[in-house]
Amino acid sequence: MIDDRSLGYLVLLAGHPAVGPRRLRTLLDDGHPEAAWRTVGGRPAADPLAVLAAHRDAGVEILVHHEARYPACLDSDPEPPALLFAAGDPTALDATRVAIVGTRRCTGAGAGFARELGRDLSVAGVAIVSGLALGIDGASHRGVLDAEGRPVGVVGSGLDVVYPARHRDLWTRVRARGLLLSEAPLGARPAAWRFPARNRIIAGLADLVVVVESHAAGGSLHTVKEAADRSIQVMAVPGSVRVPSCAGTNQLIADGCAPVRDATDVLVALGLSAATRAVAADRRPPPDATAAAVLDAFDWEPATLEHLAVRTGLALPELAVALQSLLDAGWIDAEAGWYERVAA
User: Fold this and answer.
1) Dihedral sign from CA coordinates of 54, 202, 95, 83
2) Residue pair 183/207 in contact by the 8 Å Cβ criterion
3) What is the rounded distance in angstroms from the CA atom of residue 219 to the CA atom of residue 234?
4) Distance between alpha carbon 207 and the CA centroid of its chain, in Å?
5) What percent of the chain has pLDDT over 70?
6) pLDDT of residue 275
7) Which of 148, 177, 192, 243 is the most exposed place for a label (fewest CB within 10 A)?
């Protein structure tokens, strides 16, 4: 087992701007972490024990490749992270794992489907892995939380640097219910190169990858490539040929990926028995007549208060009451002045 001083130097190396995942593995293969720190010109005065203590004080566990608590599914990966920073419960990875990925610029229908899929797979005992980004990623994790499941979020920054900032509450909930993982130490900013590197981890953790929506050249397709390199099955959700955010997923289906219509398609692909194919009943209280009319006015697209007032003809006070009842019951979400319908 690696000693604390060496582990502290590993953390320092992981945060060095000139050391990416591949170079870190090479440096460690070539010698001791302290010697590697000198090789990259690390500050002589750096205190590895203090850095290690800061992570432990923050509740961040450091998982080292080939050591006991390192994720077994990554141990023999072609590009395993030399170390992972974990907050939460690593046993969240013990279940069958499905990665749900997709574009940040998704439709309301796509986000709703991702949330529904995350919820229903969680009800069936499947762990959902995603990147905690805006759009499809965040929606899938909200579905897991709806079902009181155990989400696994893989991020491209230090676990104390929330990105995107508007997902701060979601990060907190994912950490409390499941597991947050990163290759980056505390304080690391979300540099652009970290996200493709993160995508290989998402693919490596998954038994199967589902792409809900992707543009023709979307970043989700990088995760698809990483999955293909690891012989991990990829499935895709079909969408309208007129919607740009479905172009990538429709092409995947045209190329031979199996389509996903609901959670059962995924469970069948995983080979899970019929007894585990539970579906979540909609436990939300039904809206009253006014709230139902407001809900129908969404048509699965985000809308502002003004949009809904025009569509429904309701006075603003009456509309505000109906919207609050829909929010309280879980029929809609509100964010940055927009309201959006949530799938059943």
Assistant:
1) negative
2) no
3) 15
4) 15
5) 95
6) 38
7) 192
Which residues fall within 8 angstroms of residue 45, CB to CB, at 6 or more apart?
A: none
How does 308-335 read in b/e, with b if 16+ C-beta sit within 10 Å?
bbebbebeeeebeebbebbeebebbbee
Backbone region of residue 287 per phi and psi (left: phi > 0; alpha: psi in -120 to 50; beta: other values): beta
- Tell me which H or E stretch contains 109: helix 108-123
The whole-angstrom separation of Cα 27 and Cα 218 is 32
Residue 297, sorted as left (phi over 0), alpha (psi -120 to 50) or beta, turns out to be alpha
| CB contact at 8 A, 295 and 341 | yes
Q: Report the distance separating Cα 88 and Cα 140, nearest Å.
A: 18
| Tokens describing residue 80 | 């395993």
pLDDT at residue 172 greater than cutoff 50: yes
Rounded CA-CA distance 344/327 in Å is: 14
Distance CA 139, CA 117 (A): 9
Inter-residue long-range contacts of 310-316, CB under 8 Å, 24+ positions, other chains counted = 314/290
Per-residue pLDDT reduced to its tens digit, 246-304: 999 999 999 999 999 999 999 999 998 653 545 545 567 889 999 999 998 987 777 88
Integer Cα distance of 72 and 14 in angstroms: 21
Closest Cα to residue 209, out of 142, 270, 167, 280? 270
Is the pTM higher than 0.90? The answer reads no
Using an 8 Å Cβ cutoff, are 141 and 118 in contact? yes
The first and second tokens of residue 344, run together, are 């059943």
**pLDDT number for residue 280:** 45
* Residue 36 in this model has a pLDDT that exceeds 50: yes
Parallel, antiparallel or unpaired: strands 179-182 and 208-211: unpaired
For residue 236, give the H/E element and its range.
Answer: strand 233-236
